[in-house]
């Protein structure tokens, strides 16, 4: 950053929001809005050309979505910090953005102070999330073991069948629900019993429900 001025590129396909945020940020001391992009592909190109300190990136954009655009920006210029500013509260979107390399994630309802704080923090190498987002990240990483981790010895198909067994489904019902042959279901059930070292269906149900399946 030159003279502590943070150079920002904005990427959002809604012109009213994009132009409004650009005008707001440009009016603040220490922030220089060096460009705006209307889609993900343009954002990647401008980031490569302008080399901003920060890209404020929307998730849902035409041509190239914000997640893929972030991945490309960070791959090409790792020193550029990306702050996702989006309407999406879905955990899948949040974690996809993190995996793509975003270091900040705010909802579009964030106020001016939150947006500026995020830009400044990420520009100085920190990672930052809005209060509600940070809470969900914390809950995710402090959550008890999931169904998938409860029985790592099972294949995804076996785990799926065990979940249905725990829910009280019979073999014919499982076959119908998963579009499998009765023989395939029987073979999988036998494998499950062997891997869990249980003698019968009742014991398997107890093990599965104790682990949190089918609740």
UniProtKB/TrEMBL annotation:
The modification 4-aspartylphosphate is found at residue 58. GO terms for molecular function: DNA binding. The keyword DNA-binding applies. Keywords: DNA-binding, Phosphoprotein. It comes from the Bacteria. The keyword DNA-binding applies. Residues 7-123 form the Response regulatory domain. This is DNA-binding NarL/FixJ family response regulator.
């Amino acid at each position: 950053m030159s003279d502590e001025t943070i150079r920002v590129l904005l990427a959002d396909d809604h012109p009213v929001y994009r132009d409004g945020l650009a005008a707001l940020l440009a009016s603040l001391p220490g922030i220089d809005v060096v460009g705006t992009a209307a889609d993900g592909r343009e954002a990647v190109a401008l980031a490569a050309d302008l080399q901003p300190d920060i890209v404020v990136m929307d998730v849902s954009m035409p041509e190239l979505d914000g997640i893929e655009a972030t991945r490309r920006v960070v791959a090409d210029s790792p020193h550029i910090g990306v702050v996702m500013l989006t309407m999406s509260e879905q955990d899948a979107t949040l974690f996809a953005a993190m995996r793509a390399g975003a270091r900040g994630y705010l909802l579009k309802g964030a106020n001016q102070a939150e947006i500026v704080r995020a830009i400044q923090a990420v520009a100085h190498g920190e990672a930052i999330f809005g209060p509600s987002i940070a809470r969900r990240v914390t809950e995710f990483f402090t959550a008890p073991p999931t169904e998938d981790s409860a029985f790592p010895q099972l294949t995804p198909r076996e785990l799926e069948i065990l979940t249905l067994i725990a829910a009280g489904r019979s073999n014919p019902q499982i076959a119908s629900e998963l579009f499998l042959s009765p023989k395939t279901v029987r073979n999988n059930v036998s494998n499950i019993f062997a891997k869990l070292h249980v003698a019968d269906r009742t014991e398997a149900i107890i093990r599965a429900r104790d682990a949190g399946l089918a609740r």
